UniProtKB/TrEMBL annotation:
Acidic residues bias (residue ranges): 38-53
Ranges of residues in domain Zinc finger DksA/TraR C4-type: 81-112
Zinc fingers (dksA C4-type) by residue: 86-110
Name assigned to this protein: Zinc finger DksA/TraR C4-type domain-containing protein
Organism: Candidatus Harrisonbacteria bacterium RIFCSPHIGHO2_02_FULL_42_16
InterPro entries linked to this entry: DnaK_N, Znf_DskA_TraR
Gene3D superfamilies reported for this sequence: DksA, coiled-coil domain
Basic and acidic residues: bias regions: 1-34
Record PANTHER family: GENERAL STRESS PROTEIN 16O, RNA POLYMERASE-BINDING TRANSCRIPTION FACTOR DKSA-RELATED
Amino acid sequence: MSHLSEKELQNLKEQLEKEAGEIESRAEVNKRSPEFGSDTETDFSEEADEAEEQSNQLGVQQALKERLADIELALDKMTRGEYGKCEKCGMDIEIEVLQINPESRLCKACKAV
């Protein structure tokens, strides 16, 4: 039995679903490759800038994928009735933690360690 009320669970679920939609939108925008200059140009600094931008986009893309995976896991746990339990100690995750970070996997005490 969850330590969260039905209303709290529903609010957290809506928050997770909204965040997932926003992340998917950001990921879609971030997938677009940066505009590379003409292949006939010999400006190596521009090419270096473009390569750095592409590297930055890959890093952001990976972070978005990881966050989306955490959200999907939290939603799956809700479906299974396992949401809100610390993965480390098994205790309830405080509602304050879940309201700030609804995909949290750890309680305050375990996060502090």
